[in-house]
Amino acid sequence: AADGGKDHTGKAEGLFNHVRIPAALMAGIAFGAAFGMPLAVGESFRVSMLKRTYVTIVSAALVAELNAVVSSSVALMELAHRGSSGVAYDSPSALLLSEYRLEWISCLHS
Hints:
Elements: H1 9-34, H2 45-82, H3 92-99, H4 101-108
């Protein structure tokens, strides 16, 4: 917290929304893509292994995007519930790293 800082709650909400909305869209795409290549009887070993690898990769992408959606949603609910902490910060990132460190880092690395 710094002297001369201000309330950046609105900008912090915007940053979490900028993560949540695209992540939700990508999660929907990944969910559909995970079932886009069903295994079929009689396929070669190579093709079936490629499909299994594809499903594993798409499933990992789905989990990462859902993590971003859940983390940002939790942070938005906390921001709405708690409101401004009464502490003035120099920037929205200072607010996020001070009050919502876990949620913000989780969104950044998803």
